[in-house]
Amino acid sequence: MQKQPHIHLTRRERQIMDIVYQRGSPSAAEVQRDLPDPPSYSAVRAMLRLLEEKGHLRHRQDGPRYVYGPTVPRDRARRSATRRLLDTFFEGSAAQAVATLLDESTAHLSDEELAKLADLIDEARREGR
Question: Buried b / exposed e across 71-86, counting CB within 10 Å, b at 16+?
């Protein structure tokens, strides 16, 4: 039975997960190389081991090295994180979250982005979501 990933990730753990999702199956050395202001190789290995213990990663042997992969597809992890964000800060309301995003970024949204949002809302209405 696959272990359910723990919810909370530190900033560094999120950076590592982003690298794993982008690269697919990186080694510890590749993760270290891609991290901003990287810690030592042994620290990266320890963080990868911790992420594995938390249920976010798994490893496999690839020749002399371990390569790491996520236990959950990125889109599923994104949906789960979004649900936690909505529940934690917006009482589960997508409308409140979108309103907050629009309040914060109205001046920065292009006509194309606003049109895309309108299309997504129309699609949700048609599908009865």
Answer: bbeeeebeeeeeeeeb
Per-residue model confidence (pLDDT) at position 74: 85
CATH of range 11-70; options 3.20.20.70, 1.20.1250.20, 3.40.50.10490, 1.10.10.10 = 1.10.10.10
Any idea how long the chain is? 129
d(Cα 129, Cα 124) in Å, to the nearest integer? Answer: 5
Q: Which residues lie across from 67 on neighbouring strands?
A: 27, 60
| pLDDT score at 82 | 85
Q: With DSSP H G I counted as helix, E B as strand and the rest as coil, what are the percentages for the chain, rounded to 5?
A: 65, 10, 25
Q: Give, for 68, the enclosing helix (H) or strand (E).
A: strand 65-70
Q: Model confidence over 9-53: pLDDT tens digits?
A: 889 999 999 999 999 999 999 999 999 999 999 999 999 999 999
| The predicted structure's pLDDT at residue 6 | 52
